[in-house]
């Protein structure tokens, strides 16, 4: 009887241990969906969207995000031949660097134009205050995430106890 109870308890403990989620594996890891949902919740709260506005705004925002991802993919493909040359140890001329910089500049302008066009089109759905809040959302969210990361991954204090606090 004891052996059965011990076996059952160890089985339960093992099943709880294996049921814990794993770590994310790079971009688009297992937590990417949670992050997207959290961003949507934060954005909904930040903009104070009504249900009707949210139903119209988020599909257009997803379309905008797809456009930006396509631009980023194209930009990434632009760098791959140059990185291959660098890895081989080949020399790169100034003219190649200047061409690359010009192309990077054009991609940055595309991204900015896409964002501005999206914000202008969102004027059909959002009021002007919400549009301004949307423009400020990305830096706001970045600051929030940075603050949370700093708080969560603070190094432990040296010496164990904070100054002025005694054990006994």
Residue runs with pLDDT of under 50 for 5 or more positions: none
**Structure class:** mainly alpha
- Give me the Rg, rounded: 25 Å
Mean pLDDT: 81
Distance between the termini: 45 Å
Question: How is this structure best summarized?
Answer:
74% of the residues lie in helices and 0% in strands.
Structure description:
By secondary structure, this protein is mainly alpha-helical. It has a domain at 57-125. 74% of the residues lie in helices and 0% in strands. It contains 5 helices and no strands. The chain has helices spanning 2-18, 32-47, 51-88, 94-121, 128-152. The longest helix is centred in the middle third of the chain and has 38 residues, at 51-88.
Give the SSE map.
Elements: H1 2-18, H2 32-47, H3 51-88, H4 94-121, H5 128-152
Helix pairs in contact: 2-5, 3-4
